[in-house]
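Note to self: keep these together.
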Amino acid sequence: MANEELDLPRGDDTGLDPEIKDLEVEAAYATLLARAGGPYELKEWFVEAGFILNFPLAQKKQHMVESDKKQMKEKLLALAQRFKESSLITGTYESISDIETNLEKWECCVCLLKYQERWGNRYWRNKWAKQARGTVLFINPEDQSDVRCISYKLERGAEVSTRRHAEEGIGETQDLKEGRISIFDDETIRTCTTLAKGGAISGHLSSKGDGSYFGVTLARGLLGQIWDAVTDGFASDWVKLWKRKGKAYGESIGIDDLVMVPATQGGIMQGDHMLGYMTTALLVGNGLATREQLGLCPDSVAAMDQYGSVIFQRLAALAAQQLPEPSGCKVVSFENICENRRGLFRDHEHTELACRYTRDRCIVLGLSDCESKLYTPHSAFETVGFEEPIYWLITHSDHINKLIDKLDELVWGSITEADFLAMFPPANPEKIGDPTIDYEGFVFMETRPMQSTGTNGVVYMYRKIKGLAYYKSHKLHADNLPYLLRLGERAGHIFPIAQRALELLSPGVFQRKMEQVLERVLTLLDFSDPQNPLLDRIRTGHAAALAKALAAGSKKLPKDPLVGFEQRSVDAQCKMAVNIQYANFPAEVAEIFQAQFPSIDVNGDLISGLKSIVMSVKPWIPKGEVGSFTEEISTDHPLFRPFIMACLGQSVAS
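Structure:
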């Protein structure tokens, strides 16, 4: 269909820099670095523009003692010597002073660039910005114009809407506001227009898992040598295990220079964040161990070492398939999912995820090339045994609308999963085992012929299309509460926020729970009991403080906070007990709240908020008396709204 037939709106380039707009991420970084004059000045520019630029090799020196600073420089010196061996640099690096001469360039020689979740044309019409999805760059300390991509996960794809979304009154997505598709790149504008108006459109539509991104960089040749040096000096034990295993399994099939580097989207290498979640999904999700078996392992490193051999073998096989020459760099992307949104090894429930699953999964998504920036989805290469998402071949927008419709019927129980799969047979039945329906929605890999040679002669463009229930349930708004309660009755096992809303916000439930909380608070504040725990702690705390002051020879001794306590009014007594530090009232009241509202994740901010609720309601003053809380305890009251959001595991949605 020609542009005139589609009546495509013109893309909006307002405010964009024409000199860098169409540059690849490496060239854009080099250009901007030259303009800024230094890496930290460039970091300020990226922050103002709405991007995240991190230098993971640069530690926060203001919090370091001299011995730590010296150790950091020694690591950078070792890095320089490794780079010299690889002929990346030509200078002489024999002592720390050689590093100190250009310390800023050395500690910023590896960076991670990532967009922030904001709205605007700068994120879509700048070519380099679409490529800034946790991309890792190497910047040569001796030649700042020498910038290389050493890990490229995949190009950012817009969350688009279809005719079915519009019919349901869903006019906005995470990336699309007020129908302003002109902020997108030209190809996405075409996609949005076709999906809205209807028409022929080609691609692969995959079921979209709701988990956490996990990528493994496979590097050979010079890029592998860069990673080898960086991981030796700066990686965790878990990442170093991956590197050792990658080398061993690579050598076993004739690839003696393979380097494997695992990472989340927000880091150059996997750190402690979500480590238990990732380890659980990788090992249990691939059927290599049970949760019970992993529970016997002391930590994630031991678990990966004992049970992860098949994963390393498969990735080595992928490297042999995709990197036959001793050079280059690819990233294998996965979606890792844990049963009930929680992994092992001291992990916690990840309430930021909208959907709940009944099993652990590790799903291969696709493969990115770090040089060409081409992404190949799982549907277009041999995935060597990893589980794939279900996918369907698409030729028309009507097919997508029907899938969205039936997915919603499946959510509400009008049809079964067997019915759904019978209506829409997957294109990859041999690679999905026991098929799992993902209720978040779909990933649409739209295909277009390539102008030059490339993977299968086509280019794949990443788009996200969410389900109807997802849009109405992933955040709490006053106008979607009735929908959320109905969804909780029918599909609370899929959407935890809907289940929690049903348990908490059904008529009268919150009020009854709060009444029980306040009754227990009153018992805690019963000062007629001579063994009252708050008063005991105040006495003990004061005695300890007094003894410490006397031992130190202090002339200023702490006053006894309970002097004259019995003569004060009940209101004054309660306020004192709540606020005196020795009493530790906030921690006590947090336990009382958690007994009635077990879904809350108690933290410092929440504890302070719970204390504020008690101080505002003042349950020690009978209702109707002067100073009592005269308003109704309800889910609509602004005093309780932040607490309700905490119970639902959500931030407040405007």
